[in-house]
Amino acid sequence: MKKVYSRIESIAGNVIAVKADGVAYGELAEVSTRFGMSLAEVIRLDGGLVSLQVFAGGRGISTGDEVRFLGNPMRVSFSDDLKGRIFNGAGEPRDKGPALTENLIPIGGPSVNPTKRIIPKEMIRTGIPMIDLFNTLVKSQKLPIFSVSGEPYNQLLARIAMQAEVDLIVLGGMGLKYDDYLYFKETLEEGGALQKTIMFVNTAADPVVECLMVPDISLAVAERFALKGLNVLVLLTDMTNFADSLKEIAITQEQVPSNRGYPGDLYSQLASRYEKAVDFADSGSITILAVTTMPGDDVTHPVPDNTGYITEGQFYLKGGRIEPFGSLSRLKQQVNGKTRADHRAIMDGMIKLFAAYRDTLEKKSMGFQMSAWDSKLLKYGELFEAQMMDLSVNIPLEGALDKGWEILAACFEPQETGLQTKLLDQFWPKKSH
Amino acid sequence: MTNTKGWVTGVNGNMVSVRVEGPVALNEVAFIEIGGKRLKAEVIRIRGDIVQTQVFEMTKGITVGLPVVFSGEMLAVELGPGLLGKIYDGLQNPLPEVAKQTGYFLEPGVYLDALPRATKWAWTPVAKPGDRVEKADLLGTVPEGTFTHQIMVPFGLLETYTVKSVKPAGQYTIQDEMVVLADAAGATISLTMMFEWPVKRAIDCYAERLKPTVPMVTKTRIIDTFFPVAKGGTYCVPGPFGAGKTVLQQVTSRNADVDIVIIAACGERAGEVVETLIEFPELIDPKTGRSLMERTIIVCNTSSMPVAAREASVYTAVTMAEYYRQMGLNVLLLADSTSRWAQAMREMSGRLEEIPGEEAFPAYLESVIAGFYERAGIVRLKSGAIGSVTIGGTVSPAGGNFEEPVTQATLKVVGAFHGLSRERSDARKYPAIHPLDSWSKYSSVIDGKAVAWAHYFLERGSEVGQMMKVVGEEGTSLDDFLIYLKGEFLDAVYLQQNSFDAVDASVSTERQSLMFSRVVKVLGSRFEFKDKEEARGWFNKLRQMFLDANSIEWATDKFRDADRAILDFLAAKVSGLDAAAGRIIENLERAV
Ligand SMILES: Nc1ncnc2c1ncn2[C@@H]1O[C@H](COP(=O)(O)OP(=O)(O)OP(=O)(O)O)[C@@H](O)[C@H]1O
Ligand SMILES: [Mg+2]
């Protein structure tokens, strides 16, 4: 049994320091306070002084509280018993189920050797035209939803999770609103998906340090299941809360901030999580869908900005719809060439026309004359927004492609679409609406 | 290992403090001994008997009091035959071999030989017993792929030596003794085909550094014609996320007119490297008929790999580049992204609690960036041969704003600036190099005056475009409108280029000259249109003809037909040609 230390030297924010020997960097300790026991993790060693971040937070900790080192880093139990269960950021049950202590695995492990990776090649179907048709999601992709707060991003996340054909869903909630937590639970339950879901949820009311653990714990579990051959979808919401927790710890540690208070290693911190997305050649895969709320709808804010430099595109959610501009799936070209012959052409063609529609809208708002062509574009834009962009639309890719041709035929002559004659001959609807 | 002893006294992220007994050197390699493993680290600060090291691995599990041993050597790479085609991490660990040992994951503390020890190389001796030699002098050669790899006197041997013995022609491994030298005092030095060189010291065994004047052709029109890069020059590609930096470098790594390409994937996505790893062995280099991989070295320290090794990776890459330059070869180093390298420095500087500069970057950021780009250059070797290292680095500015420290420090030292713009990439105008913001100090594959003449249409066209947003098409004169159309035309058919079209992806200088002269003909022509609608329709047709021609194979009948059709279409409408344009076309045609 490890020695117990009963003198805390300093307490600043969520970080405490004790004098102790033989402690390892990253080791866990238990701190007993008047509010009960909390885990703490070693984040700095300096001579005999050990700094720890306390999971339950620094509030109420007394210099006389006891610290007991556990001799191991943060771990999580890994077994099939995880399925259907709900835990907090420290890996303790949130549901009424038993605590799991078997087969503990470390979290935050090393990265995959780049030479062992393969080129992603499988589409994930969501039933959402703005994704399937225009920015196809690919197995093993890492992709955030960029959103202003107040947008239905968690609804979108839940819907994709329900519709995607995956073996396992791992939900990592960070600073999640309690209502949203219940929403996820109910949606997964109603859809009968709870048994293939594992949740690690830190709500807005829970301690900040636990929020920091959520991505690592979720991804460590996901990684093990993927190595057992499962295709795992990891949902992380909201990564901006994760980044804000990093900021909070960095500031109490008196680190020099780089940009709007965020620590200089924000990029590396986010990347080491997102890069866990992988397709194991002879085993399963991890796909990461995250939410990044953008303070002030500002995509140049450090969190969305650093995220954009890491992920393989982003879905830009605005006004309850996925915006065609600003959204990008960088892996779409790996899969959209082998879906249907008209997929790429419809994707490019409809977006070009939609861009022209936006120009026309602008011209109209400035009071310039509307030509016959402009009127066609206006009609087209309305149909596109109602039948493609509206998030209530739920059709398979093929249906969305057919719908695309219908919209085009309702608004334009074939040659006005800029599509290849060969495709027009094959796909242009026979009778116009 | 030296006799210096050390013990860990502190851990802060990837910085480990060590109390030492005995001498230590700055940038010396140390190893932290933990559970039967050794974690590599580099000494980055010395204060009395406490030194700070940056550890090239995750530091979890390190405890105060662990023993540390010192190598006495600075962080170095192995140089010798067998580098080409390899995939290394930032410390020159061969990643495929690592995978054979540790499987899917990169386990800490695994360091393998960078150069294959068992391979036999066909040695041809050059030096003879009795020869007097100095560092970098030629001792013999071995073929490496299509290159003649020169085995040289190691660059760290600073005196003049007498050759004692040389192995006869035959098959040898890189560990066999090939040559024995004797120094002035008569002490002998045994040489193999390989030696080590510290990565943070530039290799400068050349006679003279020259001015970069010869274009390094990339086969991307907007670069070669408008914003050229010279062999031995430097350039940077800043741009917001998703603007196309990586795709542009991938295209350049395939098409650049150099002997060897070194790709430093520095702190970016692992998935992007995989594309290169899988595609390059399949792609044939038209110059040699061999796979592109045979002229490529990949240094890959992606974003989730240890940050200190990321800092080292660009030096590892440039050292190998300088080594091949020493053989009279032209080498291109592409680093994606230098911002991640700068951030690695920032992280360490923060842990050292140095006084921070702007955005918390260290105060020495500028000089370190300058020092890195200074390692590029075209040189005349002692043998008279010319070799070059060209460096192109991407920059990932926070918020896409070029006013940040890394972009600004880089712009001060490079010879060309290819600024990617969000506006252009959103409009799918690739490559998204902004034609009004970018610049180059090097000379173009086309006469500079002609390029400036054409560039004027982009400037004026853009002005008219801006004005038109305010006053509408109605309020714009037909003459102005024509300039606008001409600017847009030049942009669409010449500046933009389809990287995913088999033909358009790479355009020879010959073809650039011809197409440029055709474009000049359009820009310099006078037209009589009855209204804007007619003008727009006519230019749309012309644009389509050019775009079609762009994807037809060069020097085929089909291409000549398309070219003829363009000239005919033009002749039917044109009512005169600007004198300056006429002269440019004449000159270009004379050159072809
Ligand atoms: N020349 C091009 N032709 C067609 N598409 C392109 C081109 N360049 C970029 N793209 C598109 O833009 C996407 C992003 O490009 P790229 O990965 O090169 O951006 P980046 O500037 O390197 O971004 P980051 O800073 O996030 O790494 C690509 O996946 C591709 O879809
Ligand atoms: Mg990139």
Helix-residue proportion of chain A: 25-40%
Overall average residue pLDDT of chain B: 94
Radius of gyration of chain A, whole Å: 25 Å
Number of domains of chain A: 3
What's the short version?
In chain A, helix 2 (153-163) packs parallel to helix 3 (178-190) and helix 9 packs across helix 10 (372-389).
State the main characteristics.
heterodimer, A: 433 residues, alpha/beta, Rossmann fold, 3 domains, 10-stranded mixed sheet, B: 592 residues, alpha+beta, Thrombin, subunit H, OB fold (Dihydrolipoamide Acetyltransferase, E2P), 4 domains, 6-stranded antiparallel β-barrel, 15 helices, binds adenosine-5'-triphosphate, binds magnesium ion
Question: Overview of this structure, please?
Answer:
The complex is a heterodimer of chains A (433) and B (592). Chain A folds into 3 domains: 70 residues, Beta Barrel (Thrombin, subunit H); 259 residues, Rossmann fold; 85 residues, no CATH class. Chain A starts with a strand and ends in a 6-residue tail after the last helix. Chain A contains 12 helices and 21 strands. In chain A, helix 2 packs parallel to helix 3 and helix 9 crosses helix 10. In chain A, strands 9, 13, 14, 15, 16, 17, 18, 19, 20 and 21 form a 10-stranded mixed β-sheet that branches. The radius of gyration of chain A is 25 Å and the shape is elongated. In chain A, a hairpin with a 2-residue loop joins strand 2 and strand 3. Chain A is α/β, with parallel strands linked by helices. Chain B has 592 residues and is α+β, with helices and mostly antiparallel strands. Chain B folds into 4 domains: 70 residues, Thrombin, subunit H; 78 residues, OB fold (Dihydrolipoamide Acetyltransferase, E2P) (Beta Barrel); 235 residues, Rossmann fold, CATH 3.40.50.300; 144 residues, Bovine Mitochondrial F1-atpase, Atp Synthase Beta Chain, Chain D, domain 3 (Bovine Mitochondrial F1-ATPase, ATP Synthase Beta Chain, Chain D, domain3), CATH 1.10.1140.10. Chain B is 33% helix and 25% strand. Chain B is built from 15 helices and 28 strands. In chain B, the strands form 6 sheets. In chain B, strands 8, 18, 19, 20, 21, 22, 23, 24, 25 and 26 form a 10-stranded mixed β-sheet that branches. Chain B has a 6-stranded antiparallel β-barrel with strand order 1-2-5-4-3-6. In chain B, helix 11 runs antiparallel to helix 12, helix 11 packs parallel to helix 13 and helix 13 packs antiparallel against helix 14. Chain B is globular. Chain B starts with a strand and ends with a helix. The model of chain B has no long low-confidence stretch (mean pLDDT 94). At the A-B interface, strand 5, helix 6 and helix 7 of A face strand 1, helix 1, helix 4 and helix 6 of B. Strand 5 of chain A pairs antiparallel with strand 1 of chain B. Magnesium ion binds next to helix 3 of chain B.
